[in-house]
């Protein structure tokens, strides 16, 4: 028997079957995830330098500004952010999504290596790091208790 014959002989059965299919479709539609933007990891390279004993102003003028000026000329940069704190300089460089992360990191390393002689000799060499979004922590949990010791909480 064909579906058309069943539908003609039993119209109530065909109507109920159609309504069930429609209901299943509506319930399934509600459970579908819709993404407005694709899941794209940005191409981010960061340069971190430590200068022990230096204030934030000294780090800004003697390290951060020098490295940022040298790196700013790279091709494909969409955003360049720098932050100077006591004893620490951090420069975050975001590239176009089309740019390869490894080649961007290599370009940054090349530009940073050219400026090493202009940095104070007491400062540690800059570290160039590729940002991997999947390597960042998703959840941080902290426990405290009035009844348990730190060792018991650790266990």
Net shape? elongated
Q: Would you tell me which CATH topology of the largest domain applies?
A: Alpha-Beta Plaits
CATH superfamily of the largest domain: Multidrug efflux transporter AcrB pore domain
The CATH architecture category of the largest domain equals 2-Layer Sandwich
Radius of gyration: 29 Å
Give the rounded overall mean pLDDT: 86
Main sheet overview: 4 strands, antiparallel
Number of strands: 4
Domains, number: 2
The arrangement of helices and strands along the chain is HHEHEEHEH
**How many helices in DSSP terms?**
5
CATH class of the largest domain: Alpha Beta
What topology, given as strand order, has the largest sheet?
2-3-1-4
Q: Label the structural class.
A: alpha+beta
